[in-house]
## 1
Amino acid sequence: MLSRIRRMAEAARARTEEDQQRQQVIGPERFDDPLAARTEWVPAVEGGTNFCTRVLVQVSPRRVEFRPTTAARVVPIVFVLVGLAALAFAVWALLNERGYFVGTMISLAVGCLFVVGGATVCCLATRRIAFDQGAGCFWKGGSTPISPAGIQSRTSAAPLAEIHAVQLLSEFIEGSRSSSHDAGSTSSYHSYEINLVLKDGSRINVVDHGDLARIRQDAGQLARFLDVPIWDVTSART
């Protein structure tokens, strides 16, 4: 337990040092753009996945969307099914008075956790992420376009006219070791995220997953669609 806590602390310190080094390596001169000096160069969201969760799809000449991959749809469904199975066992034990009180309570707790967690992840994984030139907006969630005047918060929506650049970053996710000794293999991986950099220097996260080739392709396509530069620094600290 102590060795695991020590490894977690070392991983957190390593991530902090990596973020500080990235801030030093990546400067506004690299992009020849003064706004880069007012933009953060650390991940906008913590964590990520080691597989591709979304791909950019051209819906029409004036609209693109990041749509979930098959894997992103299946994984949360599996969690929900496991949770339903645990709940079914708990209900069966209660109805038949089998006396498995501890096991029944554990099954109820695990079942509820998996069902709620899986449903939540499924909703997040399948919500719409769209860029619509006709509406003049980017937004997350909802099935219909919104207008620039209808934007209440810049955390999940923004007028396309306010998007200054597409930012592509990498983040190292430290996994747990397979052995109690430091020589064991790890499940560590890199996750990559696309952020929108607005004209005031603030950022909005769009997607975050582990397929570098795909996310680079999508970031480039998105930048061309928006007619803005792409700030790709995934090769700086990968």
## 2
Amino acid sequence: MNKRVSVLFLSVLLFAGLVIASFGNADHPAPDKLINDIRQAHNIWQHPKELSASIEAVKLTSIYSEPGSGLPNFFERNVTISINGNAVRLDKIDPSGLIKESEIFDGRRLHRAESRQGKQVEMEDRAGAAQASATQYETVEFGIKNLGLLAVLNHLSNPAAEIKYLGLTSRKENKVEVGVGVGSFILYADRDHKIRKVEVGKYIIEYAGYRSVEGVMLPFIQRVFVRGQLVYELVFTRIALDRAFPADYFSLASLT
């Protein structure tokens, strides 16, 4: 009798352990599998590990005009975004076409130029070994907050990226930390494994308006917040993947 009770008790314990383990696995999915599910949800399996793209967008930057002034609370820029792996370029032109600002990260240096009425008025080239590590993280931050979801997907494709699962949020979103070089960013993926939000540095980026672009699921609306305050919004009007760029397109020489 005691032997039968002992066997039954052990069976109950074994069953309970399996149930608890299954719940634990559901709440704490393997990071590699979760990242693969996210990649699959965005359908980037058939594309290179580092995506390249040419993107057009309208950037609406929030400003704070005096109440009753009748002035808009934002200003508009037409934006062309180019991305080739970790090399990124951002060209901003005001609607009148008089002012153009260009920023380039080539993976090591930041290059910046501004022209007015076709004449260059400012040029900046940040380089040097002393700031190499800071620039490396700035490259990640710059790409994520300015270039849509492609920069995030590129980092997820990097085999050197360190993935850490941080749990399930109250909105049932999986929270994942992605280590990149000297820094990291945090992404939030919904039940369908689509990325809805990313935190990088002081920025929070939200994504919406998903569409299929050459088979890849990408958001066409991106909102960037600092300390809960909306800073700017990007509305993408065209995204073309697997673009080829001139050899010096992401260099200082292309801005002169």
## 3
Amino acid sequence: MGKPLPWTPPLGVPFAHSSDMAIYHLSVKPISRSAGRSSVASAAYRSGDRLTDPRTGLTWDYRRKRGVDYSSILAPKGAPDWMRDRQSLWGSVEQVEKRKDARTSREFEVALPVELSPGDRVKLAEAFSVWLNQKGMVVDLAIHHQGGQNPHAHMMATTRVIDSEDGDDQGY
């Protein structure tokens, strides 16, 4: 065991006091049609769900996918209720964007420390998602491999923002 940390970890999540700390990893990637990607397909895969893209009529079914330990949708205060439904959210995102090269969402992939308990990993990922909500984005959070060697979170965020004052959804 290492010495206790001289500071309190951010977001109130307790870290184990050890000299073996997690390796930091964060990547941010656009999900865009120009790369042949779909927000509906990406959300289905990350959440281990079955979703249909209303724009193309294609259905993706990843309900048998292993390693998806947690998923939820977090929306800014004042966002309409339908934005908390994965099919409605990503179907609307795909339909509202008309360009063939549109960026329909962003993915934030974050490594989660193995030193944290599964519950604390969820709290940490949700805290980051809430921070994105405060910027006006709806976030589809999925946590993979909680019991394995590579716990990580996928946070898909809308590219259009929600105005928390009046719930304006800028076109969704």
## 4
Amino acid sequence: MICLSIHIARRQRRNFGIVLLICLSLPVIFAARENGPHVTIAVFGLFRPERIDVTTRQDAIITMRKGTADVRQVLARGQRLQVESQGEQLKIDFLESDGRLLLAHSADAVRTEETVCTLSVPGLIRRDFFGRLELKARRNLLQPRITVQEESAVHQILQSEMADVQQTEALRAQAVLVRGYLRTSKGRHPRDGYDFCDTTHCQFFTDFNAVSDRFSQAATDTQGLVLTFLGKPVQPLYTAVCGGRTLAGFADRDRPKEGSSYPFRPVSCGFCTGHPLFEWEATVETQELVRILREESGKDPAETLANLAEPEEKDELNSLKQAIRMRVGRKLGWNIIRSNRYSVEVHSNSVRVRGQGSGHNFGLCQAGAIEMSRQGMSMKEILSFYFPGCSIGR
């Protein structure tokens, strides 16, 4: 490999980031450091960003690739990396803290070393992440991804899913489930080149906070532990509030994978009764709901509404209710149909939706687990209650 290193003078180095390294020949392989399994999580997808700003808490090496050529530049603490999409290309500006342009570049992709970085979509969202950042453009939109060690991902997801929770055993139980989901569900977005997204479609993955002791402790206390069924890891699910009873079924009917053979069994839960979403109701205009049903499925909306009026919980009906919940949520917001346990009452101008719980209603009830922990029950007791027949293993 032929490399040209240009060492910038001391005065220039303060402005331009120490070293500019241009490598021409074989491409550099961007492999994660071998220290346990890693996962790649796409972030900010809901915001469809065309520009992202990046800062780091300490000096960090930025690698920009164009074709087979790599340019490396140090992003100093206090400086800002501004990345904009231009079709399938990236426009990259290194800016001083006062906004002065230090260096402009174009590339196919940009990556950082493993570090704590702050990503922001101006005017929309700002978050801290720990891991290796990669930015690419596709159809004039940026696709930021964070590659992180599994245990660090457990920590960050746990903090995102249980942000206000103080109960230790509930946090430990959740940590086991987060880790198990990462193990058994890796590669949920294979066509897009990453494992998970940062939304409820996969698991929440939001801000990194290095001083969140209770989340770090829960992850450390359960390090390596997952839920197992008949000696194999389970693809665990959890819901915010089950509304008094969890649903029966399988974790993933569409794509067989390790852990998908566990049959979720219904559990009567009396621990979440005090939650505001234990029971709920909402209304939606009949014409609006009929329009969505007709657009999404092509079936007779009247027949679909008649099926949704059934309060029973059967496999086929549960699948229909989940599909409708997702359609309505994407079109009208997630506060209309909050869970998979609901029925509808059709009137001339409106449809009343009554339901129990929040989320898909499978597996662990987070509100129930918190109450069980508050009552002194252990992580093992919590998991055994919501996952009958399962064990905790590695």
